[in-house]
Design a protein that fits this description.
With 249 residues, this protein is an alpha/beta fold. Helix content is 37%, strand content 20%.
């Protein structure tokens, strides 16, 4: 996993920046009610989406939380007084505090199903009856856009997807959350080129193979044979799922 303290300053530029954040915000807003209340953005990262949510819904009191100190500092600069450092597996809030909870680009980072269950359980716990939880799912699949890069990489051994939509839906059901909607948004500016993909393979991304493994070198050689080495292929399309906590009575 990345060191998110070290990555904080450059993170946005390497992840689509403001255009991707705008696309993500629009998709999230379409899944949550437009009324006064409180919103928690769990694992808010640099706050690039958190800030947009707060600006778009002034009647919502928005709070962001992130485990990485570097990320929380960046977010606090964007949304002063509304950000704290906290672990989404152990949120420092009372039961039924928020009307909306979001976790964007979090679940895929977790190492096993138990950690995903812990995050979903906490998001459900701090959600008020009638509230909505929104999360990204199937992040790895979003990058398979049917390009020539995907064809070369198809045989690689992959990590198990902890954020698979079916598994997340099952975890949500365990904690009383029912599906209430879905949406998608483009990862603007995140289309991969062969040259960039080769560099990412060298860092151990996309695969269970360690850097330097002979099979990694074979995949890199296949990518190097592709045309247009610096042309990004289509942007990924990220998926969101929304879940509602039943109202009392």
């Amino acid at each position: 996993m990345l060191d998110y303290d070290k990555e904080a300053d450059a993170y946005d530029l390497s992840r689509g920046g403001e255009p991707r954040a705008e696309a993500a915000t629009r998709a999230v807003l379409g899944l949550i009610p437009d009324r006064p209340g409180r919103l928690l953005d769990a694992a808010c990262g640099t706050g690039i989406v958190t800030r947009r949510l707060a600006a778009a819904r002034p009647a919502l009191r928005v709070t962001g939380a992130d485990l990485a100190a570097g990320m929380a500092r960046r977010a606090a600069a964007r949304l002063p007084g509304a950000i704290l450092q906290a672990d989404s597996r152990r949120l420092p809030f009372a039961d039924a505090t928020f009307d909306v909870v979001t976790s964007i680009w979090l679940l895929h980072l977790l190492s096993d199903a138990a950690q995903v269950r812990a995050v979903v359980a906490e998001c459900a716990r701090v959600l008020r009856p009638g509230g909505v939880y929104v999360t990204t799912v199937d992040k790895a699949d979003a990058h398979d856009v049917g390009s020539d890069i995907d064809v070369v990489l198809a045989p690689r051994p992959r990590r198990a997807a902890q954020d698979a939509a079916g598994a997340v839906t099952a975890h949500a059901a365990e904690h009383g959350l029912a599906p209430s909607g879905h949406a998608s948004f483009p990862g603007v500016g995140q289309g991969r080129s062969p040259r960039v993909t080769i560099a990412d393979l060298g860092r151990g991304w996309f695969t269970l193979l360690p850097p330097g493994d002979p099979r990694t070198e074979e995949f890199a050689a296949g990518l190097a044979r592709l045309p247009d080495q610096d042309r990004p292929r289509p942007d990924p399309l990220f998926a969101l799922r929304a879940f509602r906590k039943p109202a009392d009575g």
